[in-house]
Amino acid sequence: MTQIENLMAKAKEAYDKGNFGYAHALFEQILLQNPENSEAVHYLHISNFKIYDRKKIGILTNGFRFIFSIPVLILAQIFYIAENPGAKKLFESLLRKFPKNISYLKKLAKIYNFENNRIAEVFTLREILILDNKNIDALVDLGKIYTKEGDLQNAKKIYETLNKIAKNHHAAIEGLKNLAALEAIEERKKD
Predict the structure, then answer these.
(1) What is the spatial distance between Cα 20 and Cα 26, in angstroms, rounded to a whole number?
(2) How far apart are CA 158 and CA 180, in angstroms?
(3) In the predicted model, is pLDDT for residue 115 greater than 80?
């Protein structure tokens, strides 16, 4: 077992036991050694959610945090628009302060999409759905990814969920039609 695998096992164990602070520290150590470890990034975000929930930060404190993070937010937005690689680090830094900010998570998912990092994009979209299980944008994007990757079962679940939430949503209807066609093609291949 490599050092990173050992750290990951310890971090997941700490996470499972509810020791989110220790798990967070271990996931950060993993990311120092391997910044592109999508699974560690995902668990780091989820640990942040849990830590944030436990802290019960007041409105005034959150307001000050936001005011002092405005320059970083402006820079992150500029980098994001320019498709600058620095945008990812800036949104990650904002998510450390505001781990449940869906807007930042959506931007991060789009950055992973630009980078063609499907694993990290899926993890980030799932994080959005943890915070808001009726987030239409995240469901649409996740359905498209699963369809593109050939994971028709998960794509169908996503589009059915989307259809329940937003009746007759064009992406749900179109996605389910496309899946039916793809399933028919798969059946013909079997015959």
Answers:
(1) 10
(2) 14
(3) yes
pLDDT tens, residue by residue, 84-98? 677 788 878 887 777
Handedness of CA 41, 47, 52, 55 (dihedral sign): negative
Determine the pLDDT at residue 67: 62
Structural contact between residues 157 and 145, judged by C-beta atoms closer than 8 angstroms: no
Q: What pLDDT is attached to residue 27?
A: 83
Structural domain spans, the chain: 1-56, 57-132, 133-191
- Do residues 57 and 34 lie in contact, with contact meaning Cβ atoms separated by under 8 Å? no
Mean pLDDT (the chain) is 82
Cα 28 to Cα 104: distance, rounded to the nearest angstrom:
19
Which tokens hold the place of 84? Answer: 């600058």
Domain covering 57-132 assigned CATH 1.25.40 in the classification = yes
Tokens of 12: 């997941």
Render pLDDT for 13-41 as a digit per residue (tens, 0 to 9).
988 888 888 888 888 888 888 877 888 88
Q: Which residues contact 180 (CB under 8 A, 6 or more apart)?
A: none
More confidently predicted of 57 and 174? 174
Structure tokens at 65: 């945090």
Q: Which residue has the tokens 């967070």?
A: 24
Where helices occur in the chain by DSSP H, the ranges are 3-16, 20-33, 38-55, 59-81, 86-97, 102-114, 118-131, 136-149, 152-165, 170-190
Cα–chain center distance at 61: 26
